[in-house]
What does this fold into?
Amino acid sequence: MNPAAVFQVSLAAALLVAGLLGMAPARADDTLWARLAEGGKVVLMRHAAVVEGGDSLLRDPSCKGERNLSDKGRQQAKALGERFRARDIPVETVHHSPYCRTAETAKLAFGKGSEAAYLTLLEALSAEAQAAQTAALNQVIASHAGKGNLVLVTHEPNINAVSFEMVKPADFIVLQPKGGSEFEEIGIIKSGGPD
It folds into this structure.
């Protein structure tokens, strides 16, 4: 085979592989969205993007002193909710941590949400309280038996405590409850947001 023909075949093969690799994440996302449409899953979500600076551990019920959502974060949360609605994803219940950034993410994305202490930012707790809270979160995930999906809006350290996935703002992990104290990680949907 002459060098030009070898180059053409190699180029075609490289383009085919690149195309297939480029399509793989989209197909994986489609599969995850289809699984969510079935209901009965748990969505473990990191809050949307926040303003830079400030103390991320500070808890202020008035929200004035906390690190709150940025304009980009508000857009992320709204866009995420639109993605759920466009795909008719059944959202049964939404829980968020006591921090304002999680409450606002839940409200903008899903129009609802109730505060859940078991989603409090782990870094703000003692080591003993962190272990107890992580056990409680694992139990909530494993025991979800609703027909719709349970959405939990929380913080990166809390997600890292139950999964080895690296999540950016507004990313979420899809989990399948197995009963007892077990659940399966199905996959992650990335929002494409900032770190």
User: Anything to note?
Assistant: The chain has one domain: 28-189. The chain is about 45% helix and 20% strand. Residues 9-25 have pLDDT under 50 and may be disordered.
